[in-house]
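Here is an idea for our session: we take a single protein and study its fold together. Which protein we use is up to you, so please pick one and set it down. Once you have written the record down, we can walk along the chain together:
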Amino acid sequence: MKFGFWTPVYNGWLRNIDDENVPLSWEYIKEVAQRAERAGYELTLVPELFLNDVKGIKAPAFESWTVAAALCASTQKLEILSALRPQYHPVALTAKQIAVLEDISQGRFSVNAVSAWWAEEARQYGIDFTDHDDRYGLTHEYFDVLRGLLTQSPYNHQGKYFQFEGTYVEPKPKKLPLVYAGGESEIGRQHIVEFADAYLVHGATPEEAGEKIEDMKRRRAEFGKEPFEIFGMAAYIIVRDTEEEAQAELARIVEPNPHSSGYDSFKEFTKNSNLDLELSKRDYATMNRGLRPNFVGTPQQVADKIKAFQDVGVNVLLVQSSPVIEELERIARDVFPLVNG
């Protein structure tokens, strides 16, 4: 199993806890990345929202691509997986950025394609927000064009969303970035099969994750492509010396906070995302259904649960934890050897 972590571009990952002792600063983010790299994490996901989905729209949030560029320059081995929402990134300019980031990182930069879901954020930032299926169509063509700009000069394209004639993007990167993508809707899976290199799922049960993986393998075969080699999943992990301690921490973070500022964005996410299941208050407590895999317990209990996901094909875990540094290091120390040892 390959372990990654979420870069804290917000003040933590818990909607019901106001102060997680996770400062929003570059110095803290750099310390998280460098200590996680030393602990054995192999990649970091840099999520992208210009408004704070966790702590509410009035709370601060860092801009992801600036953070990703700094991480490329301040780490040695980590794969830097930066979220990319086509509506917010002009494709030719993004191609230029990727060529530079590939050089800074020496081939460690990847992108996570996100079709966007937050209408209120788009309104505030002056971005067009179309319906769900159209957003996936745009994302598909965007990545076709992006690869073209990164491999061909001059580049020409006449499509539904983009038109280019005689466009030069130089220099070309030595290596194209891997494109990760996640989606649960029928239209989302259809598009992802065609344009992505890796598939990500929100937190799930082993049965749910296995069904999605098998479905995407079938779709790739029908489309005439090799199966994805990377199947990743978001997961919030709580490890303690005893199961009682772990369950007490779980109870603390899922207890609903009636004054939480992030609930409106959570409702909008569920409304605009065409998810394939109904979300609970426990799912609300963390981002991306991180508690659904139930990685809660002693090191051995958590390791055994992780191995159940390995058995159905998950081979990358993108870990959320709080407070970030202390828990990432505890997980690496206590769980990694039991999973990969």
